[in-house]
Amino acid sequence: DIFCDVGRLLDFMFFLQQEELAANGELSEDEGGAAAWERVLSKVSPKSCKQCKCTYGALLQYAPGLKQLLNNCKKRGVLHEVITEMNKAIQGVHLDDATCLKAHVRTYAAPHPLKASLKPPLSTTGTRSAFGLHHPVLTTLLCPSSVWKEYFDDPVQYV
Fold this sequence. Notes:
Blueprint: H1 6-23, H2 34-41, H3 46-62, H4 65-71, H5 76-109, H6 136-142, H7 148-153, H8 155-158
Helix pairs in contact: 1-2, 1-3
């Protein structure tokens, strides 16, 4: 997913690179702030780590000037500005996507509202407690494709 928080991705990749340097003996653990990167990396699954590496590679491919900024300590301020602008653009794309989808969600949620609606029905009491991921039908519609199989194997775990 190229549409991620670029700053967090770069921080994660920095920690990963520190761990690899320490494992190869090219960096002492004290030098690299081992406690910090070990704490972060211990919470990340191998699948997520692989996905981050892939996203990082794609990011560098799409923004080739980014690698030069990463390697130049004097350009940290510029790097921060670039990351901020990239995150704004990514957020704008997410908002545009969500806005475009809003009009079509009701078609999927209740394709024939006069014949049959959602079971259980959405709350009409004004509360939103049964909306989104708290509604069994809407959960299946909102479930990311990357976890579909896991969700349908054990849906209770995700609700």
